Amino acid sequence: MAALSKSIPHSCYEIGHTWHPRCSWAVLHVTQGALAESLRIYGTLYLIAAILRKRKLDYYLYKLLPEILQSTSFLTANGTLYIACFCILRKILGKFYFWSPGFGAALPASYMAILIERKSRRGLLTIYMANQATETLFRMAVARGAITPLRHGEVLLFCITAALFMFFFRCKDGLKGFTYSALKFIVGKEEIPTHSFSPEAAFSKIDRKIKHCEKISQPMNILALTKKLMDKVCKHGPRHRCCKHYGDNCISYCIKGFIRMFSIGYLIQCCLRIPSTFRHLFTEPSRLLSLFYNKENFQLGAFLGSFVSIYKGTSCFLRWVRNLDDELHALVAGCLAGISMMFYKSTTISMYLASKLVETIYFKGIEAGKVPYFPHADSIIYAISTSICFQAAVMEVQNLRPSYWKFLLRLTKGRFALMNRKVLDVFGTEASKNFKDFTPKLDPRYTVVPPELPLELS
Fold first, then answer.
1. How crowded is residue 45: how many other Cβ atoms within 10 Å of its Cβ?
2. DSSP state of 62
3. 414-436 pLDDT, tens digit each
4. Residue 183 in 3-state DSSP?
């Protein structure tokens, strides 16, 4: 609390825009950098999304460019308004307090910026920034000794989150939209209670396929023998009457689920590594092998594959034991499947899914009439969350997620790292911990406190 009452008399030039003494020019420089980076980010993002969603020609002609420009305006405004509010707040207060260069300047800037963005995207941005802010607060608490990190805490959080998500997935009208579609893609439609696939149709389809194969006279090679063996194993193995995977027995059902999601996870990680690999392809051709034999590729594949196989295997086991199909099985199966994160530990994934779960429960409470609805809640939460992250970016970068700090540097063309954090060390957060070798070259004609003199707290 003592740090909150401290203040320093420095100007916004001495603390913030150290590269130029004029506030207007500093705002212009940040705007130029943010605009270029925002166009690159959203231009690529919306184009890839349009291709994956197989948009029609009318979308490319009339909607794609306006959506890109609107989202670009939002992100650019967030950066521009922050540095503007940074200077305005200094002129209003006459000095800098602990909260003013980060949280104080970012709060109005973030709120005004999010209003520019489309309403359909505000919820997603809010969840993302709430996730960032929660992790940042946790890191701050750990750094201050207020919280002791729990070993494998991200795995435990994922187990709880997965259990509740899978329970909602099994319940009628439990999940909707993208979350429901994503889980349906991962675990399959066989785990949905309302699955309408009839066993008669499944077996008749399999029989037709087998008869068709028998009619075709061809030499039996290894591939044909393997396929025939797999068909027999899948058809004649044990399957409980409550299980809806009519084309497979319980064992092959779990194995197929593992192979499918392992392949998808492996390919996803390969695709993510393609840009960095091809950037160095001509200078270091050996990097091409690392694209396919990288450890992370197999870790993500093992994570997704084991999640699905454990979930399906546990669900089948509980159906055999209890002799019924119950939504409560998803709680146990989802919790056990969450252990698969041991293959691919990620605080980011755990925190994001936990934030998404809180949002899901909140909206379910609104639908049930048990939780009040707050207008513009998404915009307010986004503004507060972004302000927390900016407070960390100014005062204690070491407690900010590294990927978000790199994003801020790209957005400002590196200018966020030019702040005079050595002066901010007086607030006791080790603001200059990662910038020990940097001291801005300031023009003495525009400084309030001569750089050579020791700082005195008011």
1. 12
2. I
3. 999 999 999 999 998 889 888 88
4. helix
Distance CA 147, CA 140 (A): 9
pLDDT digits (tens, 9 = 90+) for 282-291: 666 666 666 6
What is the radius of gyration, based on Cα positions, of the chain? 28
Residue length, the chain? 458
> φ and ψ at 26, to 5 degrees?
-65, -40
Going 151 to 154 to 158 to 160, the CA torsion angle's sign is positive
Beta partners for residue 7, in sequence order: 97
Q: In the structure encoding, which two tokens stand for residue 247, read together?
A: 């084309």
Tokens of 315: 């669900």
Count of C-beta atoms within a 10 Å radius of residue 155 = 18
Helices 377-395, 105-114: inter-axial angle, 10-degree rounding: 140
Which of 326, 331, 360, 310 lies closest to 187, judged by CA? 310
Q: What is the pLDDT of residue 393?
A: 95
Q: What is the pTM of this model?
A: 0.80
Q: SS3 letters for 38-57?
A: HHHHHHHHHHHHHHHCCCCH
List the beta strands (DSSP E) in 292-359: none
Please report, as a single letter, which amino acid is at residue 293: Y
